[in-house]
Amino acid sequence: MPSRRTIAGEQIQIPAVLQMQAVLQWAGRFGTKEVPVRYGIPMLCLLLSGFIHPVTAAAAGSSEAQEFSYAGYSELRIDASIFDLEFVPADAQVITLLESNIPSGFTVSHGRQGGRIVVQLQRQMLSLPGWGSGRARLRIAVPRNGVSITARTSTGSIHVQELSGSFELSTSSGEIQLTDSAGSATLRSSTGNQQARNFNGRLQARSTTGQIVLDGFSGRVQASTTTGGIRGSRVRLREDAEFQTTTGGVEITFLNDIEQLGFRLQTTTGTVQIGDRGFGRGEITAGGSGITVFGTTTTGRQTYR
Question: Can you give the residue ranges of the DUF4097 domain (predicted)?
Answer without folding.
Answer: 76-275
